[in-house]
Amino acid sequence: MVTLPWENQTVVEFILKGFSSMPELNIFLFMTFLVLYILIISGNTLIVLLVLFSRPLHTPMYFFLVNLSFLEIWYTSNIVPNMLLIILARRKTISVAGCLAQFYFFGSLAATECLLLAVMSYDRYLAVCQPLHYPILMTGPFCIRLAASSWLCCFLLTTITMVPLSRLTFCGPSEIDHFFCDFAPLVHLSCMDSSLTETTAYVTSSAVTLIPFLFITASYSCILAAILRIPCGTGRQKACSTCSSHLTVVMVFYGTLIATYLIPSANSSQLLRKGFSLLHTILTPMLNPIIYSLRNRDIHEAMKKCLSKKPGFLR
Length: 315
Description:
It holds the Pfam family 7tm_4. This protein is mainly alpha-helical. The protein has helices spanning about 25-55, 60-75, 80-90, 95-130, 135, 140-165, 185, 195-230, 235-260, 270-295, 295-310, and strands spanning about 15, 95, 175.
């Protein structure tokens, strides 16, 4: 029996190959991703600051939007800075502990986004279908509990996956043909039986993606039925405008998620898989602030007020 060079050796760090198959594009990729990262951080930070300092935006819908924008900042920051580093670095390594930590935050934040989108669909359902009860039901403390529960639940669920994952032994090879530590390429490097880990991850990921998606679908089915019952065209337009931004974000998020994890087959090239992964790690966080501010009159008014205010030393 032939013994491979890495057998019986415990791996202490992984090599993230990233986009090393295209070294001639390193500078172009670095500059492109750096610009996109700056746009993501700037756009989402702007949304957070506008909502925090503009009293008319202190409503449940914008409270959840702040949570979503705050999440996008950390979701992208968990992956992109390290990706930029490995594009230019000669030694593209990450420790096993660092890799596990990156996957933990990636999984937790992605799951939290699913629940936050479901909570936001519930908020829109109450606003359209039960407008008279909306101020009574969507109180400040209730909104805080909904948001906090989403964060806490998803971080705890990901911990359930991390327990068996952290107990796996990695004996080599140590190369991950990806630009971050995703679950599948990480588990494939284990030299132990990973069936329990994969089953646990499948159950928890299905729970935090499928259940919120079904809830969102049910919410918008009720919203659509309520809109169709509105006799006035102006009333229908107003009801649609309150939901269009959120529905677009849901479609972009789940669309990129499906494109990343369901569409690629076993025969798909790894470069194609990386391209799909870029959709939900960069495209979605970049589009969210654009979608919410593009046709949002409240956001436009808040921006105008902030721009029209003179600094204190000019008054």
